[in-house]
């Protein structure tokens, strides 16, 4: 069954994730995009926040994770975000999390590096 979707795009944070000492000392920007999959038909009828995912609470959860404990890999950061959102938003059945690192300390010409994961509630 196809699910409805709420998007939170371009959440920007400054944090200290990375493999290299300069990343964990100096920090850098991280951009998070989320797609929350849930049934929005009831919210569409009732116009009540209790029948949807609360965007402000989701933002606060993501902020807490990204600006909290540093991880070596953005793969781990994406997983921690997914875990937190699924734990805090009971109506979300699944989500997609994209974490973008615009300025990783690797040589070359590119816009960014990113990971994207999809997780479902079990």
TrEMBL record:
Keywords: Folate biosynthesis, Lyase
Listed InterPro entries: Dihydroneopterin_aldolase, FolB_dom, GTP-CH-I_C/QueF
Organism for this UniProt entry: Aerococcus sanguinicola
Protein encoded by which gene: folB
Domain of life: Bacteria
Keyword Cell membrane on entry: no
Origin organism lineage: Bacteria, Bacillati, Bacillota, Bacilli, Lactobacillales
Gene3D superfamilies for the chain: 3.30.1130.10
Annotated protein name in UniProt: 7,8-dihydroneopterin aldolase
Catalyzed reactions per annotation: 7,8-dihydroneopterin = 6-hydroxymethyl-7,8-dihydropterin + glycolaldehyde
Gene Ontology CC annotation, any one: cytoplasm
């Amino acid at each position: 069954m196809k699910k409805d979707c709420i998007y939170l795009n371009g959440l920007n944070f400054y944090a200290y994730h990375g493999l290299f000492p300069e990343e964990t000392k100096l920090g850098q920007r991280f951009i998070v995009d989320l797609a929350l999959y849930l049934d929005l038909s009831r919210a569409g009828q009732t116009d009540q926040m209790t029948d949807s995912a609360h965007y402000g609470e989701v933002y606060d959860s993501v902020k807490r994770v990204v600006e909290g404990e540093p991880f070596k890999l953005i793969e781990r950061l994406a997983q921690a975000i997914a875990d937190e959102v699924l734990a805090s938003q009971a109506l979300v059945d699944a989500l997609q999390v994209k974490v973008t690192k615009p300025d990783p300390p690797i040589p070359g010409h590119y816009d960014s590096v990113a990971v994207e994961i999809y997780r479902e509630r079990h």
